[in-house]
Amino acid sequence: MLNKLAGNNIMATKNNRRTLITKKILKDSLLQLMQDKPITRITIKEICELSEMSRSTFYLHYRDQYELLNDIEEEVLYKTFENLKNLGANLNTARPIEHFLDYVRDNSATFSILLCHPENASFQKAIMEKIQEYVRTIVPTLNSSERDLLLYSFMMQGSLSAIIGWIESDFMLPSKDVADIIYKACDSIVKISPN
Fold this sequence. Notes:
This protein has helices spanning 2-34, 44-51, 55-61, 65-84, 95-106, 108-116, 121-138, 146-168, 175-192. By secondary structure, the protein is mainly alpha-helical. The longest helix has 33 residues, at 2-34.
């Protein structure tokens, strides 16, 4: 009985690993195609040809290319928060921002498509809203006054704009320098907000 359970666990692990690899290949294929055209013009056939997988394999994991893109976006959001989780403990340093920027640079193809292509505006809005909600919980000096909300919006949009510019410049500056710029700019904005 124990041998049978152990065998089932090994098979489940192999199948899980195979599923993860298959999904990664499909995600990479979609992102590669999105470098040249919007998702609305990408077909399942193109994804399958590029990934060298059958349509039945694709449909085993995803309904369509939009669900595949959604899976990519959810993964990026999850990993974004994994990389920002130490921000609250280190409000007096740019280190967590630098850590996040290293993640962006290490996944440049994904972020270039999701943040810099206008057809992905819904993802850009979603990531901004989620990061804003998170940062509001860890920056105690910001309150809900109209003035603070405008300052906060300015701070977040400015940070995103700096990151997009950094991506589009092909990472001309080191992540530490960009983190320092964002940190100092945001710190200045927080300091002008009345307590």
